[in-house]
Amino acid sequence: MWTYNKTLQYPVNIKCTDPKLAKVILSQYGGPDGELAASLRYLSQRFGMPDQKSKAILNDIGTEE
User: Fold this and answer.
1) How many structural domains compose the chain?
2) How far apart are CA 38 and CA 10, in angstroms?
3) Is 12 inside any structural domain?
């Protein structure tokens, strides 16, 4: 179907990690297994897809969640 190359839209340089802040942010999205978190992951992944068909698929899945 397609080849997915895992790349970021913008370069990110993390100098120090903060697990407590990450836990708070994840809890605001309904937890790691929440429907809102899954939907937002699908919708944010569509921006990095190489072709329009794969973007459309992720858009459909994200809006269905």
Assistant:
1) 1
2) 22
3) no
Instruction: Tell me the whole-structure pTM to 2 decimals.
Output: 0.51
pLDDT the model gives residue 65: 65
Q: Is residue 39 part of a domain?
A: yes
pLDDT tens per residue, range 7-59: 777 888 889 999 999 888 877 777 767 788 788 888 888 888 888 888 888 88
Tokens of 48: 């990095």
Residue of 39, 40, 37 whose CA lies nearest to 64: 39
> In 3-state terms, the chain is what percent helix, strand and coil (to 5)?
55, 0, 45
Domain presence at residue 42: yes
**Residue 48 located in a structural domain:** yes
